[in-house]
Write a structure and sequence with these properties.
The chain is an all-alpha fold. It has three helices and no strands.
């Protein structure tokens, strides 16, 4: 009985972490898309919240790839890493179910 309860708790925790990663990936997508729009003032609402949520993660990858034609593609590493984490969590979740 105890193992069944732990099994259910583990499934719930993995599901919540996976969904959080998906939502964060969506927020990153919005942040990178809005960075291409020149007229956005990042110090007004709601942009400042998006910037504060996503910049610490994106700063981990900035500077890892040199600028190509003046564009910073290091955020792609952040997307790739987060997508790999999501895939890993989903595969663990599927293994637990079966």
């Amino acid at each position: 009985m105890l193992t069944f309860i732990l099994f259910i708790i583990l499934k719930i925790i993995l599901g919540v972490i996976t969904e959080f990663c998906r939502i964060y990936l969506f927020a990153l997508s919005i942040r990178v898309f809005l960075a291409w729009i020149v007229t956005i003032n990042w110090y007004t609402q709601p942009y400042i919240v998006l910037k504060k949520l996503t910049d610490p993660y994106l700063n981990l990858f900035r500077g890892t790839i040199p600028l190509i034609l003046g564009m910073d593609f290091s955020s792609m590493l952040g997307f790739l890493f987060l997508e790999c984490v999501i895939q890993l969590l989903e595969s663990i979740y599927i293994e637990i179910i079966y």
